[in-house]
Amino acid sequence: MAIVNPDFIQDIREFGADDLSACFNCGNCTATCSLSDQYNSFPRKMIRYSILGLEDEIQASVDPWLCYYCGDCSSSCPRQADPGNLMMAVRRYLVASYDWTGLSKKLYTSKVWEIGVIGFISLAVLFLFIFFHGAMPTELTSQGGVQLNTFAPSRIIELVDWSVAGFLSFFLLSNILNMYFKIVRTRKDLKIPFKLYLTEFYQLIVHFLTQRNFSKCDTEKVSFMTKVRNGNYTYWLIHFLLMSSYVILFTMIVGFLGWFQTDIVHPWYFPQRILGYYSTIGLLIGIIYFSALRFKRENEKSKKSHFTDWTFLLLLFLTATTGILVHFFRVNGMPMATYYTYVVHLMVLFPMLIVEVPFSKWSHLAYRPYAIYFSNLINKASELAVVKKSKS
């Protein structure tokens, strides 16, 4: 028997949803959605679940993650119920429901918690540098670089990076495991063959690396160039650029810091610098593009912003700009400016990683491909069960 939460409409509003009473269940939103199919019908179902307060059904659904918020459902809604915004709010709610620590809910529903946690981590980084930094030599190395590794030895920073990576992995993976139990293991009547877990896993990798469903989020039957002019492929391309830039930067910082943070000033075409330039440019383009969309509010996908959306963009912007300044001061032989800016850079970088990756906005990069993976497992297992039943 389904458990009903009569206060769910009020609860979901804390995550950014609008008043759902305008919806009269016409189904127009589902009819106009290019990603809704025979297996996953949305967003109408999510609206009904939310109005009825069926939390268990919402938590067991992958539908909110299959939505890429193109805004077609909201722009075509005859009652202005804004189903697209509800799907975004439900995704925030699901992140909080997967998180067994309860921190995600605090971050998504309280500005005080969001700012407070970020500020605490930032001050902790500053405290560690004040009392434990290395020497601050003003002379340059024989290769012409600032002695950054004397001030902040890469081996020590790398150990901290690995500790943070372990922290992030533990919480994110444990939350994904919780997600798995809510979505897959709740289907007691469905047996998923072990082979399917292996054969469908490639889809998780493909969707994580490409986010390709963004480009499918379009109901218009027009030419490729028209889609480009309308911003359909542009949105996917810039989102991919932002995501890939972040992943490359994260990989270099956590896995190859000794190679990335060097006192040697390499020529501009050195791989270390090319990857750094790509990541920095990609972050800045993404930040400017998505910020402009939210400021202009010209289309449905950017008309409404949650405060955590702006926090995320601000942290990314500060990370990118302080990183640029560190590089500029380092290659131009400005030791003191390099040291102080490096501290500010880490005061922004670490809060962004610790808060955004497992508990807030950036966790979507993991939850969405896993949701697609879990959806494929369920759909394929259901098809096999039907075939087996028909043969018996």
What summary fits the major beta sheet? none
Q: What is the general shape?
A: elongated
The H-and-E topology, N to C, reads as HHHHHHHHHHHHHHHHHHHHH
- Low-pLDDT stretches are 219-229
Structure classification = mainly alpha
Radius of gyration: 23 Å
End-to-end Cα distance, whole Å, is 30 Å
The percent range for strand residues is under 5%
Number of strands: 0
- How many domains make up the coordinates? 2
* Mean pLDDT across every amino acid position: 87
Helix content: 55-70%
Number of helices: 21
Write up this protein.
This protein is mainly alpha-helical and 392 residues long. It folds into two domains: 91 residues, no CATH class; 282 residues, no CATH class. The chain contains 21 helices and no strands. Helix 13 runs antiparallel to helix 21. The chain is elongated, with a radius of gyration of 23 Å.
Briefly characterize the structure:
The chain has 392 residues and is an all-alpha fold.
Question: Mind sketching the topology for me?
Answer:
Elements: H1 8-13, H2 28-32, H3 44-52, H4 55-59, H5 63-66, H6 72-75, H7 83-98, H8 103-109, H9 111-132, H10 148-151, H11 154-183, H12 194-199, H13 201-210, H14 213-216, H15 224-230, H16 232-255, H17 257-260, H18 271-296, H19 307-331, H20 335-359, H21 364-391
Q: Which characteristics define this entry?
A:
mainly alpha; 2 domains; single chain; elongated; 392 residues
